[in-house]
């Protein structure tokens, strides 16, 4: 009976693991299916390290098994003491040199790649007119959302990073409050965002995200940062260079866009009264917003970074953001009510319609 139970337990554990692990390998999120030069090279290093470790395990296991079988008491007899080896020069050299060689095979490519991926010298290169030639994005991580500024284009967005395919995109990474970590698993390894210093690296995006399941790559915060750390997601839309230029132009065209308290549209007026102090609706302008820039909200893939993108979820979010992301700044410090106070159902509906209509792609 006990034995049967144990077997059943093992079986269900394996079954659960299979379901769990089958989630690996989705090309919009998996580091095992890299979609860019950096991710691919890092994946190859992973394979190299795994290969070396497997080789060591196999060789040690085989030697162990051979010794185990060869020197069985039943085989060699009761009173046999095998040959005692001590101070063997040859053996000592062998088991010192082999690990050194293995470590060299592993460390040389790893160190080389580490320096290569941290080479951001091209960030400062300029063309004849003095314009920066590389695409740079300034990433600021905040509790619990992401701000993306394109300093050379003079635009800023949030929660959904838009980048062109087929070129190096350089990142300046920092945090506004506590330590977070910027990670797009399918594109490359994570990098911490710190409050006290700037981290820099580059990534390359090979594939246009429109073909992916949700039309975007998934990005995560990879550093425990507070109660809503697990929900601090962002998305990455990768588009052709032409489509990227068009997007930048559309973003620039939103210069000066704002919401008016006198608007006849209840949604816009409510936004102006309750939201505008923290959320900008123009893609041109400063960073450092208290809340995410909402210029492209209607184009986004998620509400609050993780909820399905529809008006119902947006309304629920506006009504009680603390229920979805505990500790977020839309709630008062006690976490009991939104900072903008209670809105009527009519206002929330109008507000949701207005925010969903904010778009540079439609
Ligand atoms: Cu930010 Cu975890």
UniProtKB/TrEMBL annotation:
Residues 132-250 form the Cytochrome oxidase subunit II copper A binding domain. Its EC number is 7.1.1.9. The keyword Cell cycle does not apply. The chain crosses the membrane at residues 45-69, 90-111. Residues 262-359 form the Cytochrome c domain. Pfam families: COX2, COX2_TM, Cytochrom_C. It catalyses: 4 Fe(II)-[cytochrome c] + O2 + 8 H(+)(in) = 4 Fe(III)-[cytochrome c] + 2 H2O + 4 H(+)(out). Subunits I and II form the functional core of the enzyme complex. Electrons originating in cytochrome c are transferred via heme a and Cu(A) to the binuclear center formed by heme a3 and Cu(B). This is Cytochrome c oxidase subunit 2.
């Amino acid at each position: 009976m006990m034995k049967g139970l144990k077997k059943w337990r093992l079986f269900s554990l394996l079954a659960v693991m299979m379901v769990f692990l089958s989630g690996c390998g989705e090309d919009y999120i998996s580091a095992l299916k890299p979609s860019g030069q950096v991710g691919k090279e890092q994946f190859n290093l992973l394979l190299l390290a795994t290969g070396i470790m497997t080789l060591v395990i196999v060789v040690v296991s085989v030697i162990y098994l051979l010794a185990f079988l060869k020197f069985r008491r039943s085989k060699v007899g009761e009173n046999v003491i095998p040959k005692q080896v001590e101070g063997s020069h040859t053996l000592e050299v062998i088991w010192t040199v082999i690990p050194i060689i293995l470590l060299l095979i592993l460390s040389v490519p790893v160190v080389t790649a580490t320096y290569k991926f941290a080479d951001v010298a091209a960030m400062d290169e300029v063309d004849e007119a003095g314009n920066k030639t590389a695409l740079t994005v300034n990433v600021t991580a905040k509790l619990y959302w992401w701000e993306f500024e394109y300093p050379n284009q003079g635009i800023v967005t949030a929660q959904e990073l838009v980048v062109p395919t087929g070129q190096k995109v350089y990142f300046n990474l920092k945090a506004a409050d506590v330590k977070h970590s910027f990670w797009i698993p399918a594109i490359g390894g994570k990098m911490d965002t710190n409050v006290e210093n700037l981290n820099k690296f580059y990534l390359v995006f090979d594939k246009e995200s429109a073909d992916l399941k949700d039309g975007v790559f998934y990005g995560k915060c990879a550093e425990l940062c507070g109660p809503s750390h697990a929900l601090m997601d962002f998305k990455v839309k990768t588009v052709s260079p032409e489509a990227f230029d068009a997007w930048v132009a559309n973003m620039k065209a939103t210069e000066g866009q704002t919401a008016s308290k006198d608007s006849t549209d209840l949604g816009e007026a409510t936004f102006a009264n309750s939201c505008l102090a923290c959320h900008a609706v123009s893609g041109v302008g400063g960073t450092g917003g208290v809340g995410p820039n909402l210029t492209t909200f209607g184009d986004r893939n998620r509400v609050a970074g993780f909820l399905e993108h529809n008006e119902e979820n947006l309304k629920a979010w506006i009504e009680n953001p603390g229920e979805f992301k505990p500790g977020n700044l839309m709630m008062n410090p006690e976490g009991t009510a939104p900072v903008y106070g209670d809105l009527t159902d009519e206002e929330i509906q109008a507000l949701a319609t207005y925010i969903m209509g904010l778009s540079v792609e439609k």
